[in-house]
Amino acid sequence: MEKDISNRKEQANFFAQKGGKLRNVAATMREKIEELEEDKVDIRREDKTIPAFTIGNQDISHPAVRFESVFIVKDHKRIGKKFELILRKKMHLLITGPNGIGKSTLLEALYNGTEKGMKIENGTIIGYYRQDFSTLDFDASAYDVLKEVALDATDQDIRGAAARFLITGDLLAAKVSSLSEGQKGLLSFARFTLQKPGLLILDEPTNHINFRHLPVIAKALDKYEGAMILVSHMPEFVKQIRIDEELDLGKIG
């Protein structure tokens, strides 16, 4: 990339000196060079690996989730299935099943409280990692998104949490919508460390995130002592995390 940028700069300077319409060409090239240099900074930042971290948990004595039934999706219709489980603190539930069976839809329904057969207990703080990051306010700054869940944290706490996930300086002040998908993923985990949820709902948390970070994230989830529900298509990632219960939507009766 360095060589490409250098070559483009030489060409832009050459065209600028020729004058006329070529000056417009040079201006366009310089805009592209600026974009490449910004990308170069992002690449250097993302080449780093996040340090080890922990996700604290809300200390709750009541169950986090009560399941009496779940559903699968077939031909765009929900089909109810009996499934009884009380998910408590320190319990990790893995939900598996073939693509299209409704794993993400099930998590969304649980979070939104739209299904009678499964309920998150009142008072439970929920950390929800969605594939589309729609739990984040795209119009807010990264800093404000962190501050929103860090009620007792100081400015230093928030900036420290962000820095551990490579969200620093201009990124912290930028709108969430301007962040890369990988940065949104890391921002989500920074939120969890400040939020200290009693329940983590994780829908494909490896999506978009640099592979260098995944062992660090897996270790943090393995040691998480709240209740957790995980959906992941990466067996090698799941193997690194303690799983206490599994719900296979493809085999449920």
UniProtKB/TrEMBL annotation:
Keywords of this entry: ATP-binding, Coiled coil, Nucleotide-binding, Repeat
Q: Which residues form a coiled coil?
A: 19-46
Top-rank lineage group of the source organism: Bacteria
Q: Which Pfam families match?
A: ABC_tran
Instruction: Give the protein name, as stated in the record.
Output: AAA+ ATPase domain-containing protein
Gene3D superfamilies tied to this protein: P-loop containing nucleotide triphosphate hydrolases (3.40.50.300)
The cross-references to PANTHER family, in alphabetical order and at most eight, read: ATP-BINDING CASSETTE SUB-FAMILY F MEMBER 1, ATP-BINDING TRANSPORT PROTEIN-RELATED
